Amino acid sequence: MAKYIKDVLIRREQIEEMCRRLGKQISQDYAGREVVLIGVLKGAYVFLADLARQLTIPVCIDFMSVSSYGGGTRTSGIVRIIKDLDMDISGRHVIVVEDIVDSGLTLNHLRDLLGTRNPASIAFCTAFDKPDRRRVDIRIDYVGIVIPDEFIVGYGLDFDGRYRNLPDVAILGDDGQGGSQ
Ligand code: PRP
Fold first, then answer.
1. Do the domain assignments include residue 154?
2. What is the pLDDT of residues 142-153, one digit of tens each?
3. Structural domain boundaries, residue 63
4. What is the CATH number of the domain that holds 38?
5. CA 8: distance to chain centroid?
6. How many domains does the chain have?
């Protein structure tokens, strides 16, 4: 049975408002400083583009691509680097940008990993947060919208590589399979 778009959960107008709010907050918090936004591929590419354009402070942008070890399971909490940063973040103010935080294992590992590279500071920003699925206690500095434990797609989030381009966030109809984002 195929997956299908069941319902729109978050409309594009709400997402735009979220980006304006987070952009204003980050610009205030980092006033007088330059930040490095690190987008975690692939899902974060849409949010990072919108968020970056709401910032009024100097910004550099880089990307990482990571993958969970172990055939897609997230049990270990260890992530493998598929693409590392191009930039040296030593002495820089870093904000890691995610589309969604689920178990928290990815960000938890990135905090440890990037922390070893001596940034001046490191903060985390996510468009969407699913706190009901959290497996590790992680502080997220900037949270866009808290969402229920539904499988969502759109605005960067995919199912099997598809739907990332949807401008709204939609709930995907179930074919009986559960699963994490
Ligand atoms: C998603 C999301 C985060 C991670 C969050 O990426 O972009 O990186 O999962 O999950 P966690 O909190 O349980 O660690 P995904 O592995 O689906 O890759 P993608 O961004 O390429 O779609």
1. no
2. 999 999 998 899
3. 12-149
4. 3.40.50.2020
5. 20
6. 1
CA distance 95 to 125: 7
User: Does residue 93 form part of some domain?
Assistant: yes
Residue 167 lies in a domain: no
pTM above 0.85, yes or no: yes
Spatial separation of the C-alpha atoms in residues 132 and 52, rounded to whole Å: 28
State which amino acid sits at residue 37: L
Q: Specify the DSSP class assigned to residue 22.
A: H
Query: Measured from the CA of 101, which atom of ligand 1 is nearest?
Result: 12
User: Of 86, 102, 129, 158, which one is the catalytic site residue?
Assistant: 102
Q: Judge whether 144 and 17 are in contact, CB under 8 Å.
A: no
pLDDT for the residue 69: 62
Q: With CA atoms as reference, report the closest residue to 172 among 146, 148, 154, 147.
A: 154
| 162, part of any domain | no
Mutate to test the pocket of ligand 1, among 76, 101, 125, 136 (most ligand atoms within 8 A of CB): 101
Q: What is the pLDDT of residue 180?
A: 59
Supply 164's token pair: 């990332």
Q: Which two tokens stand for residue 125?
A: 């920003």
Task: Report residue 28 as tokens.
Answer: 């205030």
Question: Tokens 């590992």 appear where?
Answer: 109
Confidence band for 4, pLDDT divided at 50, 70 and 90: confident
